Amino acid sequence: MSDNTRQTNMYDPAVIMGGLYGDGIIGLKGAFSREWVQTMREDMDAAYVAALKRPGGVVGRGPQRHYVEIHPEDIRGFVDLATHPWVIAVCEAVLGAQYKIVEIGFDVPNPGAETQPWHRDFPAPEETVRGRRLNSLAFNLTGVDVVEAMGPFEIAPGTQWDDAAEFEHGQFPPKSLYPRYEARAQYKMPKMGDISARSAITIHRGTPNRSNEARPVLVLGVDAPDACNAERHDLQVSHHFWATLPDSLRAHLTCRLVDELEPIVQAHTIEGLIMGDA
Question: Tens digits of per-residue pLDDT, 98-147?
């Protein structure tokens, strides 16, 4: 048995599933060192500067907010992240042994970012609506120690199961439901090195960034075999990078193998968050 397998077995599937099927979000504190996160932040900052200069390199998520999809090899710690025992344990518990990594990117709420409307990142799939099964997860890693002035991520636990019949685009609940979410709302203020996993259909929003510092957060998207979120993304891996990856990780990547990485034109827009982008 490998060290990773032994460590993965330390995490109880019942606790993992209870958290994600209950609140819709779980976390692990101190998963990575602050030095590791500082390197991740350097890579995100460099990718952000490059994306802002490229047509279609970023997509708006509201005023002073952007999302940038990147290549796995743009993050020096990608293998560390994708093979972390907790990440593996969470994916296997919720999505099954044949889970697929379909996305890596980051959100940047800059100074001046305003409150987002409550929303889901995409409409709930039939597997969740009718089958009551989660078939995708988003892992988040903050690039900073989050404080309230930075506009923390806010989530309404348990709302991944809410009926979306009245939701605009299947994602945006009417304002008449806001009191329900505000009554449940929890600010998430992780520190560098913490990692969370959530269902992207649990109702959430970004809050105002009143600080002078951006709050970048890395996003790793993972699907069950029957999910189709890969269609929203263009995960690319160069042949050179592919050759350096362990076989155990290759088996979980849904990607295009390319001789030379191509610039990514952002495709996962969230219409209700674009208005007023700056």
Answer: 999 999 999 999 999 999 999 999 999 999 999 999 999 999 999 999 99
What percent of the chain is modeled with pLDDT above 70? 92
CB burial of 172-205 (b: ≥16 within 10 Å; e: otherwise) equals bbeeebbeebeeebeebebebbbbbbbbbbbbbb
Per-residue tokens: 225: 């075999």
Domain extents for the chain? 3-274
> What token pair was written down for 120?
């889901």
- Class in CATH terms, 3-274: mainly beta
Using CA atoms, how far apart are residues 264 and 243, in angstroms rounded to an integer? 22
* β-bridge mates for residue 186, sequence order: 155
The pLDDT of residue 265 is 78
Tell me the C-alpha distance between 81 and 258, whole Å: 22
Pairing of the two strands 100-109 and 65-69:
antiparallel
* Cα 209 from chain centre: 19
- H/E stretch holding 205 reads strand 204-206
Q: 0.90 cut: is pTM over it?
A: yes
